[in-house]
Amino acid sequence: MNVFDDVPLLRTFVIIVECGSLSAAARRLKTTQPTVSRHLSALEGKVGTTLLQRDTRRMSLTQTGHQVLADAKLIIGLVEESDNRLHAGQAQLTGHIRLFATIDFGQFVVSRMIASFIEANPCITIELTYSNRPVRMIEEGHDVGIIAGNITDESIVAKNIGRVERLIVCSPNFLQDRKIESPADIEFLPWVTLTGSQFSNTNNMMFCNQEGQKQSISVSSVLATEGVTSIREAVRMGLGIALLPTWLIQEDLLSKRLISVLPNWKPQDIPAHVVYPSTPNLAYRLRHLIDYSCEYMAPILRSDR
């Protein structure tokens, strides 16, 4: 029998990789660890070589393991797609999804979207990982990513879902009696900035006013951090001035814990994307999640125009 004829063994192998251990895979499959181990050994026997290098602390895919994993996911996706077509309108979405998101966007926005998605599809389970360094997350076994920032991995499909709108903000007492009329007036103030290559150079900023005039400034950071939540906390304390996404600071603006600086000058937005593998047979549950993400984000993110 060809190694790819045994779909249950392939499915077990994929789940082992997704879970990171035999014991976690057994819990997911609602079986015993020895059973999972036997299935893995049976698949490796069919392949004729080791797929997973294992020791007491970790396991890692061999080169052949990477190849088999990619093909196994493709085959399982085809099986699920065929089953969904046969039972269209009858069966619920089922299965497990490994999703990653950029840190704060994931915690504040994506996590709510996931809760809504699972509520609508109760037979789906999702594992959510946060990373502001998303390169190769798909290659490492994740199914879908929802990220804010520029895409640096050309091997994946990236679907634009909108743009993150930002405002220049500070605490009410920070500016004191300073006269602020243009971006040049805030260039040399202490700034709290965001790090991460996908967010471009966050110390060089471009602003545009309602008349279409553009002005760029280069700022110095008193604090640079990967998370916009930590930026917000520092700015609330009066440490400096910052660009923050509107979805994060709406309540702060209403309560006047933060104030908008230069409201007539708009900073550049940050793009947001849903990313996934470049494969012709994406599993139905993943395609459904991708479409759901685009629809959910529409009222939260600014549309391209």
TrEMBL record:
Residues in coiled coil: none
InterPro entries: LysR-type_TF_proteobact-type, LysR_HTH_N, LysR_subst-bd, WH-like_DNA-bd_sf, WH_DNA-bd_sf
Keywords: DNA-binding, Transcription, Transcription regulation
Record CDD domains: PBP2_CrgA_like
Signal peptide location: none
Annotated HTH lysR-type domain residues: 5-62
PANTHER family, alphabetized: HTH-TYPE TRANSCRIPTIONAL ACTIVATOR TTDR-RELATED, HTH-TYPE TRANSCRIPTIONAL REGULATOR
Family (UniProt): Belongs to the LysR transcriptional regulatory family.
Record protein name field: LysR family transcriptional regulator
Organism, as annotated: Thalassomonas haliotis
